[in-house]
Design brief:
This protein is of the alpha/beta class and about 325 residues long. About 50% of the residues lie in helices and about 10% in strands. A seven-stranded parallel β-sheet has the order 3-2-4-1-5-6-7, with helices on both faces. α1 packs across α2, α4 packs across α10 and α10 packs across α11. Bound molecules: guanosine-5'-triphosphate (GTP) and magnesium ion. The site of magnesium ion (MG) has 5 residues, from α4.
């Protein structure tokens, strides 16, 4: 392309808070553009300021609706908000996506809000890297809070919320008898539970069940975070202020207890491992070298065990991984 602006130049603009530059770099990150890596590495130095909130729950739990309402709360409190939504049900791409379409209209024209929907299909490798790169871009761009919406199904999606400071699990009433969070394996990663659609008569049952469940897993002791259950309703416009307050309280708890250090370490670990996994998977996928085929044949014929083959391949890979990967 003629006169294509470099990613480094765009990174500079991101740091100055230009949202167009954020949008363009997210697109490059999504397309796996190798030129963007150096810019992302540079930008990473300017991250670490935003409070990152992961919002997860089963399909249809009410996540997108909740995110929209929460964005409005943050704006009313004077904070800027970036949203990265991994929204498979979204009929849109790269734009506004969330539940409450009419109120979304207000948000789209607000420079204190940036919303990006990311594709779940057609991306090379996993979702985690582009999604977390997008979070970095919003963080470096000066957004106070970054919300990540993902469906709580699948390892990649769970790993994305693991890279958040505060994780909110959304539970909807009437989606089955069991607590969905347990089924989806996200009960224990919740810092805050939301029972959405609290205008529905069956929501009380869900609230009670969740509270009972949390009582059982309660750790004794002072200074331990007590996972709250926050009912919300977008119909009645209730609970979103309480949810924002609970997130703020959790952020405060992390700081005051010193847990933030361990949380940051955990986030760093998740991210490094995710990228390493992706690099390895990528290399395997594109590696048609005869050595791979040779090794696979040996494994099939029981001349070599899978572990031995993996170690051999990883050693060989070391030579071919580029910085810009
Ligand atoms: N009654 C009621 N319905 C709600 C509420 N919040 C969301 N809904 C409805 O629940 C359905 C799912 O809402 P979404 O916000 O799209 O849920 P989601 O979790 O983002 O869904 P996916 O992204 O597809 O996983 C929609 O039909 C919403 O209108 C609420 O507070 N009360
Ligand atoms: Mg959604």
């Amino acid at each position: 392309m003629i006169n294509r602006i470099s990613s480094m130049k765009l990174a500079e603009r991101v740091r100055e808070g230009h949202v167009r530059a954020i949008a363009r770099l997210i697109t490059r990150v999504e397309s796996g553009d190798p030129e963007v890596r150096q810019a992302m590495a540079e930008l990473y130095k300017s991250t670490g300021r935003a409070h990152v909130v992961g919002i997860t729950g089963v399909p249809g739990a009410g996540k997108s609706t909740l995110v929209t309402q929460l964005v409005l709360e943050y704006r009313a409190s004077g904070r800027t908000v970036g949203v990265v939504a991994i929204d498979p049900s979204s009929p849109f791409s790269g734009g506004a996506i969330l539940g409450d379409r009419i109120r979304m209209g207000e948000l789209v024209s607000d420079p204190g809000v940036f919303i990006r929907s990311m594709a779940t299909r057609g991306t090379l490798g996993g979702l985690a890297r582009p999604a977390l790169d997008a979070v970095d871009l919003l963080d470096a761009g000066g957004f106070d809070v970054v919300l990540i919406e993902t469906v709580g199904v699948g390892q990649d999606e769970v790993d994305i919320v693991r890279a958040a400071h505060t994780t909110v699990v959304v539970n909807a009433p009437g989606l089955g008898d069991d607590i969905q969070a347990i089924k989806a394996g996200v009960l224990e990663i919740a810092d805050i539970h939301v029972v959405s659609k609290a205008d529905r008569p069956d929501s009380n049952k869900t609230i009670q069940e969740l509270k009972a469940m949390l009582m059982m897993s309660l750790e004794p002791g002072e200074g331990v975070w007590r996972v709250p259950v926050v009912p919300t309703s977008s119909e009645k416009h209730t609970g979103f202020g309480e949810l924002m307050a609970a997130i703020d309280l959790h952020a405060e708890h992390l700081e005051q207890s010193g847990e933030i250090t361990e949380r940051r370490r955990q986030i760093a670990l998740t991210r490094v491992v995710k990228v390493a996994e992706e690099i390895v998977r990528d290399n395997f996928a594109r590696d048609s070298r005869s050595q791979t085929e040779e090794l696979l044949k040996k494994v099939t014929q029981r001349q070599l065990d899978p572990h031995g083959a993996a170690v051999t391949l990883l050693k060989a890979m070391k030579e071919t991984i580029h910085e810009s990967h």
